[in-house]
Design brief:
single chain, alpha/beta, UDP-N-acetylmuramoyl-L-alanine:D-glutamate ligase, 2 domains, 15 helices
Length: 438
Amino acid sequence: MSDPAAAAPGYGGPALAAWLDRLERLHPRAIELGLERAGAVAARLGLRFDCKVFVVAGTNGKGSTCAMLEAILLAAGYRVGLYTSPHLVHFNERVRIDGVALEDARIVAALEEVDAARGDVSLTYFEFTTLALARILSQAGLDAVILEVGLGGRLDAVNLFDADCAIVTSIDIDHAQWLGESREAIGLEKAHVFRAGRPAICSDPQPPASLVAHAEAIGADLWLFGRDFNYAGDRQQWSWGGRAHRRNSLAYPALRGANQLLNAAGVLAALDALRDALPVPQHAVRRGLAQVELAGRFQVLPGRPSIVLDVAHNPHAAAHLATNLEQMGFFPATWAVFGAMGDKDLDGIIAAMAPVVNHWITVSLPGERAAQGADLAARLRANGIGGEGDRHSVTVAATPVDGLETALGAVHDADRIVVFGSFLTVADVLGRWRRSRG
């Protein structure tokens, strides 16, 4: 898999690393939702976009949606900027112009500009970096920019920017301590990326009533899956239908996973909604879907045994991962390297993955929020996995890379290893794999 920021000069150097280390210590809270502080600094910077803006929110599927939208627009010949988070290996992965991650020097310069503009305003790591990377994109002479929401929607720094078209992917319970403990509460938070009179796409087949009600209350042009757009397919190809247009004989997206057609359908709805401003021919859709890449989302590394990387870190995503694993075919045994944040619904994640995992290797991650490997092992045993008389095994390893080495030392070539959970879990293993390839 190509990666424009992997092991290349100009990426991940000491100047950028020093800045990011400073930003992690600059604000007293890692997460503090609200638009007032970031909005004040954005105003001082005169931050605005003179191109079409897509904003993508949702519980799962945001990264895939952004990647497909970017790939199709690039194939159509447009100049496209992408902002997404979090990154896996290099911070530079968070921002791309025309498909290329930006080098350190450009990012550092933008961070310095934000620092000068903020005065005594305290910003979180996410707010600070969002403003810096948005400033770069706003000055790049783009035709379209794609902005991925970090958390929720209503109070996320990305919501400072008005979307010409907003997409909400799936909606499920995650980050409940900030967004609410029901799909209705979380759906309302995400619905706030919609704007009056502008296309508002929801690709969740069962959208919360709160999302629909908010879109209707503000007068957004709401496109619902199953009502305003849909898809159908067979083993060879699929087709998409919208309010007045169809796209037929499409190849399946290069991204793996049973849920990718749903994400692709939302992307095509967004493009159809803005077709007058950004017309996209059929050949660009086909080429974009064929060429799209996204690390860490059901990514299968080459070679044997099969190694699957997936950032499934909530029950909804874990259920999709389990389905995708079941559809891969037969493997004598599946080994899971599992690391996660302690504030996630760990029991829900375990329940979703338990039917497809034979052997568990739990690992520790850095940071105060992270669950330790021993704690995850205890949670597995509390769920009846790996206890006396159970055929499943549970092993504890220090880090994700250590967990992978443990699995590689025990598996047969015909077995399968799945590395999943937090972005940090996948990043550790993906970084090791990239380094091994030179």
